[in-house]
Amino acid sequence: MKKNILITGTSTGVGFEAALLFAENNFKVYATMRNLNKSDSLQKEIKVRNLSIEILELDVTKNDSIINTVQTIINKDGKLDILLNNAGAGFAKTLEHASQDEIDWVTDVNYTGVIRTSKAVIPQMRKQQSGHIINITSIGGLVGQPFNELYCGAKFAVEGFTEALASYLTPAFGIQFSLVEPGGITTEFMSNAVEKTQNEQGELATGDYAPIFQKYISGAQNRAGDGEASPYQTGKEVAEVVLKVALSENPPIRIRTSEWAEKLGHLKTVGDPDGTKLVNQVQSFFL
Q1: What integer best gives the mean pLDDT of the chain?
Q2: Measured distance CA(108)–CA(43) in Å, rounded
Q3: Is the pTM of this model over 0.85?
């Protein structure tokens, strides 16, 4: 029987590429997105490639939406093998300049949404005594970066959340957990983040933050053109790492997706690159 996978945020970027890649590798894919009006590109590829992908509506900020979609999949297949939490959003802005609505939005999409989807699928995976939850975070989930404190904070939270679940659900119920940590990604996510930053740059273009903000923006633009040294990968390149993790017999707790991300996170990961030593130590301390 084919393994099935639920992927969030599949209208563009990593989620879009992952849906196609997993289907091409004999998975039954449930590709979900908040707005089904953005499904045209995926529908076109499904038809051209003749792939086993079903598109469903799912908004990670709405609990009822998640529960209904998960139940639809379980009713159809009687199981859920993999959850890929991919949906995310961000922007570069100081804490001082961010509104409370923006703070809540970044936290809700990037962190609370992962909690909601995980909570919805764990009962079924526990019943199965198997399953794999893969959370796409960021190198920003390991390393705090200028003007990204809100995004990094949410991704740090997902990292701790995932480590904690792995410390007891994996040995008790066979549910695997993995964190995929890209650097930059040349997708609509990045375009949206840059556009939002540029649109609001006026607030940061003057005053105390202006010199360091301009330096940050210039550095980001320069890094985008550094070829192999660039932090930016395509959505497909990241999706290929996700597929490798999903197919692994002993999947890592965490994995970086590029040399740039590996270098930036080196001081945090040098003693335990894939995160398994730490989780094993936590188990020995508490269980």
Answers
A1: 92
A2: 28
A3: yes
Name the nearest CA neighbour of 15 among 193, 236, 186, 247: 236
Of 72 and 195, the one with more pLDDT: 72
Give the span between the Cα atoms of 130 and 40, in whole angstroms: 33
7 pLDDT exceeds 80? yes
Active site residues: 151
Phi-psi region of 80 (alpha: psi -120 to 50; beta: other; left: phi over 0): beta
**Residues ≥6 apart with Cβ < 8 Å to 107:** 150, 153, 154, 157
- Which residues, listed in sequence order, are joined to residue 29 by a DSSP beta bridge? 5, 53
Q: Is the dihedral of CA 136, 256, 275, 145 positive or negative?
A: negative
Q: Locate 114 and state its tokens.
A: 């992962």
CB 75 within 8 A of CB 56: no
Six-digit token string for 23: 């289907």
Of 132, 91, 87, the closest CA to residue 110 belongs to: 87
Note the pLDDT tens digit of each residue in 216-260: 888 777 766 555 556 689 999 999 999 999 999 999 999 999 999
Looking at residue 200, its pLDDT comes to 56
Q: Which domains does the chain have, with CATH numbers?
A: 4-286 (3.40.50.720)
* 61 close to 88: Cβ distance less than 8 angstroms: no
Could you list the beta-strand ranges (E) of 53-129: 53-57, 82-85
Residue 3's nearest CA partner among 32, 28, 34 is 28
Task: Give the mean model confidence (pLDDT) for residues 197-218.
Answer: 75
Query: How far is it between the farthest Cα atoms of the chain?
Result: 61
Relative to beta strand 82-85, strand 131-136 is parallel
Query: Given the structure tokens 């890094």, which residue do they identify?
Result: 223
